[in-house]
Amino acid sequence: MSTATMKRYRNLIGGEWVVGAEEREIRSPATGHVVHTVPVSGEKQLDAAVVAARGAVDSGSWSWDPELRARVLFEYARLVRENIDALATELTRESGKVFGLAKNEARRLAQSIEYFAGITRWVYGRTISPRPDLLNIIVREPVGVVGAILPWNMPLGLVARTLGPALAAGNAIVIKPDELTAGSSAAALELLASIPDLPAGVVNLVAGGDGIGKAMTAHPDIDMIAFTGSSDTGKEVMRACAGTLKKLSLELGGKSPVVVFDDADLDRALAGTVEGAAFYHAGQICLAGTRVLVQDSLYDEFTDRLAERATNMRVGDGAERGVQCGPVISEAQLQRVLDYVEVGRGEAQLAAGGRRLTDGALADGYFVAPTVFRDVAPDARIAQEEIFGPVVSALRFSDLGEAAEIANGTRYGLAAGVFTRDIDKAIALARRVRAGTVWVNTYGQLFQNSEMGGMRESGMGRQYGLEGLHEYTELKNIAIGIDPRLAPGS
User: Fold this and answer.
1) How far, in Å, CA of 230 to CA of 78, rounded?
2) Nearest 5°: phi and psi at 81?
3) One of 75, 114, 251, 451 is an active-site residue; which one?
């Protein structure tokens, strides 16, 4: 593709599309071809975006008019639905993601925006009367200016999860997408910015590298940071935000367990485990169930069948029909995954995959064969550290108590899954596992009206549902004194 015809994305600042300080070419991780350019911004562009956002929440009716917010969000959802194929195509081009998954992600953007549009009027407070001559009105108000720092693995799904509740609650937002997937994020916001009723400055996009993210965490006029990314980076964000005591929402890493008891429906458990491992996303999902805990009596049969399924998956460019697993996002991520594979070779037995794929059309991309390690010890590095690639560790357990101990044996607590026909056993394990979400006889099901979030080093705060909406509000107590002579009971 020639640079004369490729799409050149820009920043959205104060309702205008403006260039960044520099420009970066984005190459497909599947083909190596340049697909478009994105801006590389500096603090000047960030400051301008924050000024625009602050003006939008400090003046005008956006923060105080739920009807306006609902109207804009419903219209945005409609536009996204009309452009699902175009958004999915852009996402697949810049990430290599399987096109069907990209369409689901674009559809999820529409669904999330629709959901939060519908609950813009649900920002309720409450009233109490602590004594006859006093009435306290406890109201929820928007936080103000939200800074969203988003990763590359699900740019449409994760922008929806932040943008929807932040706008529904009446905030303005400055979004910093990851450079590698800034194109699809910008394409999604082009639709939103085209809505005439959206006040200028309510939504801003500033693309750039780590420097912009660090500047956002320290910026005195940003009131809240919503960050999605690794646990180690989340700790850095938390430390940086301490200087201005910003409100924080952190959705961080995971090393989620999938527990398979010997009484499970084997085919259902295998399908759920493959889904949970996120092989279809090349393992690049924070919720991925990459620790598969199998009861002793079922272990050999289950692990053999899991390895067979992984071996038979078709890997390639997500734009091609029939592909089940796309590339990892970059050369750096490829090397990270391959380094962990080498660690795994020294810790466990390789049952499937374990190599880079370079045959034919795969030669110019970052493809890793879906990988399964067996006979993995609970304290092995590949069972403890988030790899963020198509790599699964299969561990043994003897009974429910040991399964719970192994499941809780990492620093993470994002999600878990359990497969069994015994509902008492399922509930018992679900209550003992320290994770924000536990699925029983399924995995990875997320809905806009059901909250999600992590425990321990998997983050703080909640996404989706009313709980997700409330993350983007502050509580205010307005105490009204009543003339004691007129108070009830006087």
Assistant:
1) 33
2) -60, -35
3) 251
Tokens 């391959």 sit at which residue? 338
d(CA 239, CA 14): 29
C-alpha 351, offset from chain centre: 30
Out of 105, 286, 386, 457, which one is annotated catalytic?
A: 286
Write down the H helix ranges in 283-420.
Answer: 296-311, 331-347, 381-384, 400-407
- Which neighbouring-strand residues pair with 226? 148, 249
Strand 134-142, strand 473-481: pairing: antiparallel
DSSP helix/strand/coil, 422: coil
Whether 251 is a known active-site residue: answer yes
pLDDT single digits (tens) 376-412: 999 999 999 999 999 999 999 999 999 999 999 999 9
Give how far the C-alpha of residue 38 lies from the chain's centroid of Cα atoms, to the nearest Å: 21
Quick check: pTM over 0.90?
A: yes
Q: What is the pLDDT of residue 3?
A: 41
d(CA 182, CA 91): 10
Interacting residues of 188 by C-beta distance below 8 A, sequence separation 6+: 80, 87, 109, 155, 156, 159
> Tokens in use for 7?
């799409």
